[in-house]
């Protein structure tokens, strides 16, 4: 699961108020480099919840080797320099949580991540 | 990218479900069809660079991979982890793993659906997918709105949703309408979804009530091959519409 994918996910457990963002408990994280696509990351940034990106990165940081380049705490206004875009691309696309859990911020319900795929299926009594 | 090249690239993918589940109506989408749907969506400006797409009920990932050739971000959702693994491998095999993201989630049907009723009367011609039953009159009432539909993503979170949903022939009546409802809530621009032609009048009314425009983009026959032991015929032709809903 990429941090990009995490940005889309919201908890739908019964009793959830906000349900977003889900917290990440990472057990195994891998880096898979992919070619930097400036146009792609520039286009996608405005559509993401940047605060959730920062939060997600903090939560997985200690499992990420090598340490990724720093990204700004707040999304800069106007045009972003290439070095920052590269760092943002890397965080969003190249960091994969392979094993771990996503945790509903309101109910604490844990959704397992196995081999990179989060299982968000709820039991009947949780909907 | 030319349609024939897209089809050619997709034809190398593993289509078959490892252990097809009758209840989930798992039938693979053909490379031919996937290429054409995606090319059509691109022509309409609903898929392309800078855009995101969700494949709802992705199965072994044929539509997912087709979309991944043209879009920047594809999110593929299915309830079956085995199918998702095949889809993931398929995406890797044609180097589309950068563009594809997989989530296990299940579209739910309402608790008042025929499935839940015990002792429902047996009708002639039903069972094993034979016989055309008209859609249940109160399908509308059992449709689930919002996040309770089982998909853990916000409304209007992707540009386009593509779907080849279950048709609701296996004790899961109404699931096709639910897939369409979930698809329309998740999309910003458009939904492309396959549905039995027999459900067209019913779905047209529903879509209008939801406030969207519906087009029947194509009519075709699904040649569903014998996937299950109980299928007596080698293949079965089912009349199918490709619906395009403009959000």
From TrEMBL, chain A:
InterPro entries assigned: Trm112, Trm112-like
CDD domains found in the cross-reference section: Trm112-like
Superkingdom of the organism of origin: Eukaryota
GO biological process: rRNA (guanine-N7)-methylation; tRNA methylation
MF (Gene Ontology): protein heterodimerization activity
PANTHER family assigned to the protein according to its UniProt record, in alphabetical order: MULTIFUNCTIONAL METHYLTRANSFERASE SUBUNIT TRM112-LIKE PROTEIN, UPF0315 PROTEIN-RELATED
UniProt record similarity statement: Belongs to the TRM112 family.
Name used for this protein in its record: Multifunctional methyltransferase subunit TRM112-like protein
Organism: Cylindrotheca closterium
UniProtKB/TrEMBL annotation, chain B:
Highest taxon in the source lineage: Eukaryota
InterPro entries in UniProt: DNA_methylase_N6_adenine_CS, rRNA_MeTrfase/Polyamine_Synth, SAM-dependent_MTases_sf
Basic residues bias (residue ranges): 115-131
Any one GO molecular function term: rRNA (adenine-N6-)-methyltransferase activity
UniProt region (Disordered), positions on chain: 114-138
Name of the molecule in the record: Methyltransferase small domain-containing protein
Species this chain originates from: Cylindrotheca closterium
């Amino acid at each position: 699961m990429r941090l990009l994918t995490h940005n889309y996910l919201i908890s739908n457990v019964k009793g959830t108020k906000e349900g977003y963002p889900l917290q990440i408990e990472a057990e195994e994280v891998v880096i898979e480099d992919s070619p930097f696509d400036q146009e792609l990351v520039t286009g996608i940034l405005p559509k993401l919840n940047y605060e959730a990106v920062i939060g997600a990165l903090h939560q997985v940081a200690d499992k990420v080797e090598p340490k990724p380049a720093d990204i700004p705490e707040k999304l800069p206004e106007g045009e972003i320099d290439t070095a920052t875009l590269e760092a943002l691309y890397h965080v969003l696309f190249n960091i994969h949580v392979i094993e771990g859990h996503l945790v509903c911020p309101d109910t604490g319900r844990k959704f397992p991540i196995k081999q990179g795929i989060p299982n968000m299926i709820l039991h009947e009594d949780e909907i | 990218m030319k349609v024939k090249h897209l089809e050619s690239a997709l034809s190398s993918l593993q289509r078959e479900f490892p252990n097809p589940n009758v209840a989930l109506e798992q039938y693979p989408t053909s490379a031919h069809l996937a290429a054409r749907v995606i090319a059509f969506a691109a022509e309409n400006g609903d898929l392309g660079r800078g855009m995101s797409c969700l494949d709802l009920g992705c199965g072994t990932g044929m539509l997912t991979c087709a979309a991944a050739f043209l879009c920047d971000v594809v999110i593929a959702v299915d309830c079956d982890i085995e199918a998702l693994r095949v889809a993931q491998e398929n995406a890797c095999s044609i180097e589309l793993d950068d563009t594809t993201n997989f989530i296990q989630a299940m579209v739910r049907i309402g608790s008042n659906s025929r499935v839940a009723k015990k002792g429902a009367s047996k009708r002639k011609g039903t069972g094993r997918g034979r016989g055309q039953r008209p859609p249940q009159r109160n399908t509308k009432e059992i449709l689930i709105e919002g996040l309770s539909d089982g998909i853990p993503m916000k409304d209007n979170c992707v540009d386009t949703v593509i779907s080849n949903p279950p048709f609701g022939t296996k004790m899961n009546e109404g699931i096709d309408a639910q897939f369409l409802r979930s698809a329309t809530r998740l999309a910003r621009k458009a939904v492309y979804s396959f549905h039995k032609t027999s459900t067209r009048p019913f779905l047209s009314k529903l879509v209008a009530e939801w406030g969207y425009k519906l087009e029947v983009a194509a009519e075709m026959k699904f040649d569903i091959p014998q996937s299950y032991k109980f299928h007596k015929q080698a293949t079965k032709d089912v009349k199918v519409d490709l619906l395009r809903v403009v959000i």
